[in-house]
Amino acid sequence: MRSRAATGLAAAAATIALALPAAAQPAGSGDGGVVLRQVGVFDNPTYVAQPPGNRRLLFVTEQAGLVRVIRRGRTLARPFLDLRGRVTCGAAGSDTCGERGLLSIAFPPDYGKSRRFYVYYTALDGAIQVDEYRRARRDPTLALPSSRRSVLTIPHSRFPNHNGGQLQFHGRELLLGTGDGGGGGDTLGNAQNTDSLLGKLLRIYPRPTRSGRPYGIPRSNPFVGKPGRDEIFSYGLRNPYRFSIEEMGRGPDRILIGDVGQNRFEEIDYATLPGALGANFGWNAFEGFEPYVGGSPDPGGTTFPILAYGRDRGCAVNGGYVVRDRSLPTLFGRYLYADYCAGQLRSFIPALAGARDDKPVGPALTSVSSFGQTPDGHLYVASLDGGVYRIAPATAP
Prior knowledge:
Blueprint: E1 34-41, E2 45-49, E3 57-62, E4 66-71, E5 74-75, E6 81-82, E7 102-106, H1 111-114, E8 116-122, E9 128-135, E10 143-154, E11 166-170, E12 173-177, E13 200-204, E14 232-235, E15 242-246, E16 254-259, E17 265-272, H2 273-276, E18 286-287, E19 290-291, E20 307-310, E21 317-322, E22 335-339, E23 344-349, E24 356-364, E25 368-373, E26 379-383, E27 387-393
Antiparallel strand pairs: 1-27, 2-3, 3-4, 4-5, 4-6, 7-8, 8-9, 9-10, 11-12, 12-13, 13-14, 15-16, 16-17, 17-20, 18-19, 21-22, 22-23, 23-24, 25-26, 26-27
């Protein structure tokens, strides 16, 4: 996401970071048939998730390294997991997190049995780190710090920005989005470099292999047996901070990626999962639909976004979800997203040929850091100002 210095929101257009929170705007009333109903207040919440099979618990990651639990509408005093000693943001003497910190959590489909879950954060040396933990056998609100297992480490020490941040399970496969390594204009040349894991969408099996590797590789990944890193699923991304998978029921599932732009355009990419396999989303040859001046040559075969918007509408796109909550009929089937600087939720009808009917959704909310979707389709949104909200029908009690 884009950076904002302590002096105010105006600096957001110049650099990239998760930044100091702005003053909160009221959230609760709105048009479009939906309202925001606050479910808790946290310290820089970055992600909201719910494990499969447990509707009573909601998990919220805080940027400095805590995973908090909401149980039956009440935030528990004891954190589920404390990573403050491992997360860059929690380092001694650190005043702000910037774009670093604890950025997401993911639960596999067998979580109820395996008790395993995964976290994505930036380590003390700046590296992107994905770890596996287990929760306590008899207490679903407590993780076991001693169960930590390192799954994946990606060096990221030169620049503090463009860390990506998303984990998403699709069956047993774990997908994660990484930023291009930071700086400006892809200084390190990672996004188009298939020997680098930065500026990519990666796909792995997060469990150890029989040969002793900390994770496995799906054989269908596009660079298996070819030049390039086997973990890569898609490439040519700048900072895919948030993405989601739309389960179609009929036909192949689809992926939507909110990719933060440089100076001119924010973009949302949309493809079937088979279509995203080996796809090049264009950065840094292109920004949005336009060639990026000073970037890489046109690689050919670029998968262009279905929506791009300019700096007049915001500074950092925050990808969301296709709404499948039938209690939200005005949004059902539409893709919900936001921009960190705009203070406004928006939605459109996604199609492979392009986005249709892009328009605002009533409730205003500043400093959106993430959306969250539960297994039964309920939607949440978090703000770095502290609030986590359920997106609810306006007529609900």
